[in-house]
User: What shape does this take?
Amino acid sequence: MKKWIRSKTLWVNIIAVTAIILQAEYGFIVSPELELAALGVINLILRKYTKEGLTK
Assistant: This one.
């Protein structure tokens, strides 16, 4: 088990949420379909390389 702070998947999703917030704030809008597709592909790739779970 590894600590949550070392989770690549968690960090990718934190960055994605931050990007969505910044888009709304600054008006640089990427289509929701493109965002979801990109995040889905990235999460699938990261899932392939996941070997262990997280500790609490």
